Amino acid sequence: MSILEARALSKQYQLGEHRVNALAGVDFVVQKGEFVAIMGPSGSGKSTLLHLLGGLDKPSAGEVTLAGQRLSVLDDNQATLVRRHNVGFVFQTFNLLPTLTAEENIALPLIIDGQDLRKHQAHIDALLELVGLKDRRRHKPDQLSGGEQQRVAIARALVTRPAIVLADEPTGNLDSKTGTAIMELLRRSCDELGQTIVVVSHDPRTSAYADRVVFLGDGLVVGEVSCDGTEDMAQRVRIIIEAMERLQG
Ligand SMILES: Nc1ncnc2c1ncn2[C@@H]1O[C@H](COP(=O)(O)OP(=O)(O)OP(=O)(O)O)[C@@H](O)[C@H]1O
Ligand SMILES: [Mg+2]
Fold this sequence. Notes:
Blueprint: E1 2-15, E2 18-31, E3 35-39, H1 46-53, E4 61-66, E5 69-70, H2 76-86, E6 87-90, H3 102-112, H4 121-130, H5 146-158, E7 164-168, H6 176-193, E8 196-200, H7 204-207, E9 212-217, E10 220-226, H8 233-248
Parallel strand pairs: 3-8, 3-9, 6-7, 7-8
Antiparallel strand pairs: 1-2, 1-4, 4-5, 9-10
This protein binds adenosine-5'-triphosphate (ATP) and magnesium ion.
Adenosine-5'-triphosphate binds next to strand 1, strand 2 and helix 1.
């Protein structure tokens, strides 16, 4: 069963006289419980695609269906609710609120949804522990390193236990040990909680956690590779690097 579908998705940005063709007709389907990575050169449209899939921006043409809901027929409030109840988003630029502590930033999706935080404190504590920020919980974003801010953003995306996690370069600012821990966490939440994960990355060692890697080039899907679960990590990384060389030259 598909949980996320993009059909003939295109997105143009108008910059003064200049028109940027960020996505040029993308079909992209994700099954419930699948773990997919999106790869491609800088500027190929990865973040644009992720934002449209999560209903954070509107396509110029085409359609996104998220958890069975066609986003184009919803008004902004309805789309916000569908997103809030189904999607956890990790932004490439983190988007933390500067006046809130790490812990408050993590809890923010629950606060916005009007939930009683006391009921969720154990879960918030567990997430702080998982991302290694227990002793940074009272720090504001400007008192955290880039990698620590990234880990806050990841915990915030997981705090509502969303059916779908969309993560833009979630390991981009992390050392390889922390990056591995984050990807193992996402892999486990896919395997054990049935969460659907879509990760944008340019790093084959990150994409190797996915079941399937979709490659973008100039706003189009240019290829994909799947892993059947029998390969070890090193073999997956090799398969992805070969595909990158084949597709990206
Ligand atoms: N708000 C915007 N206004 C105008 N052009 C934009 C905007 N956002 C993105 N673009 C352009 O659209 C294209 C795709 O951008 P996008 O951010 O999706 O690329 P990306 O694959 O995520 O790149 P990176 O790997 O560098 O993050 C780029 O050429 C970019 O300059
Ligand atoms: Mg990007």
